[in-house]
Design goal:
Helix content of chain A: 40-55%
Order of helices and strands of chain A: HHHHHEEEHHEHHEHEEHHHEHH
Pfam family, one (chain B): Zn_ribbon_ACC
Keywords (chain B): ATP-binding, Cytoplasm, Fatty acid biosynthesis, Fatty acid metabolism, Ligase, Lipid biosynthesis, Lipid metabolism, Metal-binding, Nucleotide-binding, Transferase, Zinc, Zinc-finger
Helix content of chain B: 25-40%
Largest sheet of chain A: 8 strands, mixed
CATH class of the largest domain in chain B: Alpha Beta
Pathway (chain B): Lipid metabolism; malonyl-CoA biosynthesis; malonyl-CoA from acetyl-CoA: step 1/1
Strand content of chain A: 15-25%
Strand order of the largest sheet of chain B: 3-4-5-6-7-8-9
Shape of chain A: globular
InterPro entries (chain B): AcCoA_carboxyl_beta, Acetyl_CoA_COase_Trfase_b_su, ClpP/crotonase-like_dom_sf, COA_CT_N, Znf-ACC
Radius of gyration of chain B: 21 Å
Enzyme class (chain B): transferase
Oligomer: heterodimer
Distance between the termini of chain B: 70 Å
Number of domains of chain B: 2
Largest interface: A-B, 53 and 58 residues
CATH superfamily of the largest domain in chain B: 2-enoyl-CoA Hydratase, Chain A, domain 1
Number of strands of chain B: 9
């Protein structure tokens, strides 16, 4: 028995594993455990041990590099969903200054699965909107596991239109298992909320830069993903239906999710080839969560450059290019 | 084969033949809702709506446009846009083979037919989804044909009407499908800015990526009686919330009650109703 994504509940095998590492990373975990052990033993200043540690660290780095140089699409999906992967709030804290979170859609409520607000990027005022999964269990529940409801998308829309009025670039951070599939979501018009965002983003008179930081799942991701520049972090993933959902429909079992991930081409490598993604932003060795500060530095640098480049264009030129690009999808 | 088998098969064969000759295939159709057995020619005269229970049966894209548009001056748009398997998608079957099969089964090249024509003398562009083709799913061809149709409407400043019937985005075209949502929404927004009316009619069923883009962006959103439309399918919702859904959930009547659509339009009134609306939007009179 697994949940709807087919994740297995903890069993004894799993209990022995280091949960900071994914199953295909376990050889790294073993090395890291050894290093940790030696460190504890080596408190009596033995030179040989220091040397041994540095040797092992080198080995661990090489092993990580070799494992990460050849990840399967399904492994990328796992990294993108890693429980320690930085979320929108982690990036917002480190990349922006002077952050003021803004709440509510003015119609129904405030959706915690989407956070948004005004801040400064390298001194320049910007609007930041990001999907947020939540770290601890109570926070995950509060944030509905990053699955926005209509009020979340309507809050995002309100903030985007505000950004247009005050001529601020909009920066979105995409990370969601999908828009929430529930009764209340349907009653309040989740389809219309998503559709409306797509329509308005296509003509918003200010630059929009979208970055997939983790999991970009279907319409729930696209609803804050239409713009002038689409970035993907190296080990993030973007799909029209989750690999589990796809496997369930085609093979009638979630066990085939790895095959579905491969068939759909859910990584930035494939999506860049298809002309959908503009830029892949490299992650630190072993994924963003291994070095959040380094990841934020890289992303910040890219965002600053992209904002500068897009702000240099006239609004008409910006919108014309955006529209042409939208019209070209699939050609 | 033994002598007994030979005899048995012959008997069976003979028997089937006799049955076939007595009842020509497809002369009768059973209503899926009330189980009434209906005489097909009569059913067709009734626009495939069950005369007993008013169930609006699914109809193909060409028939949809045929009963909606005036008979004269019809021009198909985007027929030259054909599916391409960009991802070389393969599961238990190749996507390419699935496409060929669907084309053979439906006689269509993909899941959307677009036409420029007349509605009671008024020039319109009308598009219809072919649900029998791959569940009416939206991939590149559906998105591109819709977009081209909308561009004709935009250039000639004539209204656009869309009849949707779809399971959503087409998995086998992955992100290319998803991006058709952005593309079609963008072109609809252009219609809006130019003051060109767009009427979206949802027919059973409309789900996923199509409902979350072109189907709910009409100046008028409407649905046929009993049509189901929503973002997530009932099964997914039940699995997520682990409870049974209320009766009538996501049906046209539910959508009307929750403010998602302007009205429910019965198939027999479709031409009159849409023409009447468009005439008001364009300040003209229905011929």
């Amino acid at each position: 028995m697994g949940d709807k994504r087919g994740r297995k509940p903890p069993n004894q095998e799993l209990a022995k594993m280091n949960l900071n590492y994914l199953d295909f990373e376990q050889p790294i975990a073993v090395l890291e455990a050894k290093i940790e052990e030696l460190r504890l033993v080596g408190s009596d200043n033995d030179l040989n041990i220091t040397e041994e540690i540095s040797k092992l660290q080198d080995k661990s780095r090489k092993l990580t590099a070799s494992i990460y140089s050849d990840l399967s699409p399904w492994q990328v999906v796992q990294v993108a969903r890693h429980p320690q992967r930085p979320y929108s709030s982690d990036y917002i804290k480190r990349i922006f200054t002077d952050w003021d979170e803004l709440h509510g859609d003015r119609h129904f409520g405030d959706d915690h699965a989407i956070i948004g607000g005004v801040a400064r990027l390298d001194g320049k005022p910007v609007m930041v909107i990001g999907e947020e999964k939540g770290r601890s269990v109570p926070e995950k529940v509060m944030r509905n596991f990053g699955m926005p409801k209509p009020e979340g998308y309507r809050k995002a829309l309100r903030l985007m239109e505000m950004a247009e009025r005050f001529k601020m670039p909009v920066l979105t951070l995409i990370d969601t298992p999908g828009a929430y599939p529930g009764i209340d979501s349907e009653e309040r018009g989740i389809s219309e909320a998503i559709a409306q965002n797509l329509a308005v983003m296509s003509r918003l008179r200010t630059p929009i830069i979208c970055t997939v930081i983790g999991e970009g799942s279907s319409g729930g991701a696209l609803a804050i993903g239409v713009g002038d520049q689409l970035n993907m972090l190296q080990y993030s993933t973007y799909f029209v239906i989750s690999p589990e959902g796809c496997a369930n429909i085609i093979w009638k079992t979630v066990e085939k999710a790895p095959d579905a991930a491969k068939a759909m081409g859910v990584t930035s490598t494939v999506l860049e080839e298809l002309g959908i993604v503009d830029e892949t932003i490299p992650e630190p060795l072993g994924g963003a969560h291994r070095n959040i500060d380094e990841m934020c530095m890289t992303l910040q640098g890219k965002l600053v450059d992209q904002v500068d480049r897009l702000c240099a264009l006239s609004t008409d030129e910006l919108l014309d290019t955006r529209y042409k690009r939208l019209m070209s999808y699939g050609n | 084969m033994s002598w007994l088998d030979k005899i048995v098969t012959n008997v069976v064969r003979k028997d089937t033949k006799r049955v076939e000759s007595k009842v020509p295939e497809g002369l009768w159709k059973k209503c899926l809702k009330c189980a009434a057995v209906l005489y097909r020619p009569e059913l067709e005269r009734n626009l495939d709506v069950c005369p007993k229970c008013d169930h609006h049966m699914r109809i193909g894209a060409r028939r949809r446009l045929d009963i909606f548009l005036d008979p004269q001056e019809r021009h198909e748009i985007g027929a030259d846009v054909l599916p391409v398997d960009r991802l070389k998608f393969k599961d238990v079957k190749k996507y390419k083979d699935r496409l060929t099969q669907a084309q053979k089964d439906t006689g269509e090249k993909d899941a959307l037919v677009a036409m420029k024509g007349l509605l009671k003398g008024m020039p319109v562009v009308a598009v219809a989804f072919e649900f029998a083709f791959h569940g009416g799913s939206m991939g590149y061809v559906v998105g591109e044909r819709f977009t081209r149709a909308a561009q004709v409407a935009l250039e000639e400043k004539i209204p656009l009407v869309c009849f949707s019937a779809t399971g959503g985005a087409r998995m086998q075209e992955a992100l290319i499908s998803l991006m058709q949502m952005a593309k079609t929404s963008a072109v609809i927004e252009r219609l809006k800015m130019a003051g060109v009316p767009y009427i979206s009619i949802m027919t059973d069923p409309v789900y996923g990526g199509v409902s979350a883009s072109l189907a709910l962006l009409g100046d008028i959103n409407a649905a046929e009686p009993g049509a189901r439309a929503g973002f997530a399918g009932p099964n997914i919702i039940e699995q997520t919330i682990r409870q049974k859904l209320p009766k009538g959930f996501q049906r046209a009547e539910f959508l009307l009650e929750h403010g998602a659509i302007d009205m429910i339009i019965a198939r027999e009134n479709m031409r009159d109703k849409v023409a009447g609306l468009l005439a008001k939007f364009t300040n003209s009179k229905v011929a």
